[in-house]
From TrEMBL:
The name this protein goes by in its record: Uncharacterized protein
Organism this protein belongs to: Glonium stellatum
Domain of life: Eukaryota
Amino acid sequence: MASTKTPRESILEDGVFCVEDPVIGKRVDEIAKKGFPFKTEEGLDFCKLNTLDDKRIRNVLETFFEWSCLGFYKAFGRDPSRTFSFLNRTKIEAQVLVVQLWSSGSRMVFYNGSHLQSLDAGPAANGLLEIPNSHLERAGITPTEVEMKDGGLAILDGRLGFKIVQGFAYRRMHVRGRPVQGGGGNL
């Protein structure tokens, strides 16, 4: 996972920036034991502490978006036979960044370069888009397996294809946009 690229360069070129972080892994493991109570005060505190208050994440979001709004937050588990994305067939530039907080013992495959191609993804039962695996065998797409033994963080372009092989992740989607009149700020 070590790279000389900046997080922004990694996301623009490969579609993803990853870093192992045992503190995040432990926090994800702990909230998972409680059933991911995101609609409670504890769950909202988890979201704030592990995304909005994390300078690494804020800095990356701010290099892409002057303003962003929360698209959704949800936990997803393993499904090693399927490849998903959040978006497909969108503009050439990133419109959505997805923050993934990974549990300990996680392994995933990111399809580097897939964010730059239209892959005919269709609706999946989990609310994401599913990419036919045969569409990932194109030039310019490289499957990269990442293991986070102690958990960690990934920030990806919402168009990137990914597969959860082992473990689970909390995901928070940030969408390019302006606040509504009289409302909030940059998330």
